[in-house]
Design a protein that fits this description.
Structural class: mainly alpha
Shape: globular
Mean pLDDT: 80
């Protein structure tokens, strides 16, 4: 009886020991697999191939994708861009082999200047194509239509702040478009512009300090004097004492 109980006890301990050995072996295998996976993951992250995947390629910086102003990536289109994309500007850009031109939906002389001329003036502050061309060329062509002086003069109180915004812009090309537009406007409205000149001459005076703008600004002032008469000369000299009159 005792011998049988001893045999049963030995068998029981053997089974328990066997189960423990199996669990220990399983834990060891799992530990080895986990260590191997971590080692593999670490080596893959640190490998030259993975580093090349993580780091940006030089071509991504040197050759960025062309910006599409009408694309979904454009986060906040300007007011002019939004109006143009919705058909609010009654003209479209026609690409030519030598130069571009505008195609109007109807004859420009039949278009109301209010608010079209002001909207085009606001577009002078754009820095992306095609808005830059459409705004400057549209503004110029609209001022050339018959009856332009009568249509433009009443809009001067609203036009001048918009042109001033272009003249104080940090972008040199925006400034140049604003300067050209100011000269084009002076040709059409003449002395009617004199009452508003003082609001524009301060920005021109500051830009005169830049040598590259000295000649175009001087030329613009001379045209302002030419079309504004003696009254414009007094205003110009009061803001820019160094200006030399075209009359000598």
């Amino acid at each position: 009886m005792q011998k049988s109980e001893c045999q049963e006890g030995v068998q029981l301990r053997s089974r328990v020991t066997g189960n423990c050995d199996q669990r220990t072996s399983s834990r060891t295998q799992i530990k080895h697999r986990t260590t191997a996976e971590r080692s593999k993951s670490s080596s893959s992250v640190g490998s030259p191939e993975s580093a090349r995947k993580l780091l940006p390629r030089p071509s991504d910086k040197l050759n960025p994708k062309t910006i599409n102003p009408f694309g979904e990536q454009s986060r906040a289109p300007s007011a002019f861009a939004a109006i143009y994309s919705k058909g609010g500007i009654p003209c479209r850009l026609v690409h030519g082999s030598v130069k571009h031109r505008l195609q109007w939906e109807c004859a420009p002389e039949n278009l109301p200047f209010d608010p079209l001329l002001i909207t085009l003036a606001e577009g002078l502050r754009e820095t992306k194509h095609p808005y830059t061309f459409v705004s400057k060329e549209g503004f110029r062509e609209l001022l050339l239509v018959q009856g332009a002086p009568e249509k433009a003069v009443p809009l001067l109180p609203r036009l001048i702040p918009v042109l001033k915004a272009a003249l104080v812009h940090v972008d040199d090309e925006v400034f140049e478009r604003g300067l050209n537009a100011l000269v084009q406007l002076s040709v059409i409205v003449g002395p009617s512009l004199n009452d508003h000149l003082k609001h524009l001459l301060t920005s021109l005076s500051k830009r005169l300090r830049d040598k590259k703008f000295k000649e175009p600004i001087t030329s613009a002032l001379q045209k302002l004097e030419q079309h504004g008469g003696s009254g414009s000369l007094i205003i110009i000299k009061s803001k820019i004492p160094t200006y030399c009159s075209i009359s000598g």
